[in-house]
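Illustration: SKA complex subunit 1 homolog.
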Amino acid sequence: MCVCVRERGGEIAMDVKQAGLSLDSLVSSFNTRIAELQDLVVARNMYPASSITDLSAVDTTLKAMEHQLQQIKDRLREETLAIPKAKKLIKASLQQQQKLQSMSVYAPSYMPERGKVMHHDNTTCSTVEEPIKQDYSFGIQEPKEDPAPLIKEKKGRGSPPLWYITANELDSLSSYMRGRLTLDKINAAINDMAVYAEANSQLITAPRKKLTESTIEKALEIREIGMAEGVKGKHFFLETDVKGPSLKLDITGKAILTVLRHLGRISESRIGHHRVFILLRPQ
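Result:
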């Protein structure tokens, strides 16, 4: 009987011990869960629910930046592929620049446009722009071939030539003759002289029925001068034609005419009461 009681007491003690261990385990689990809940509470306080919206905006901005970055990469790839073509273009441009620089040595710094020439008929006067016709062969040393002659019209002398002077020609003049004249002023005056000569050429070739009462007298006078010896077949203008815009009968204009006579661009003669200037080809 005692043995049975003792064995029963031992079993009860073991059950109590196991129950204590289970209770300890349960308490430990509760403590662990409580710690996790505390961590979650701290995290909730650090990142409130309103931060979710901010994170979404950041995500949208980041995606937009990634898209822009991809576009930049694509653009850089295109530019990289275009570099060889750009190098070829730069090389060709440099070659063209060298050619233009070598040509500019023989071209004047001022290239004025041909002015407007008057065309007369019975009732009105109209203006027509004349194209620029520059004799580029002049001034080039050792030309390979002679420049082609100007093609004449059926009833005229063709357009007056524009034989501009070069910087070397201007520098070759004495200081007292050159004075304050510049290459631009002289070449602009050459352009004006071509306009005067073109107007006179049109008066010579214009049919009589197209001349007005105000121009017929001058046309007859110009035709008579154009038949004079030394003038026939050449382009010319009168002293009375000189009215600008660049060439005028002032001190500067007279100095320009002197320089152009010296350089062989014009010759001067007197026919009747007129002072006539003839355009000459430079020798």
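Reading the tokens back as a structure: Residues 115-156 have pLDDT under 50 and may be disordered.
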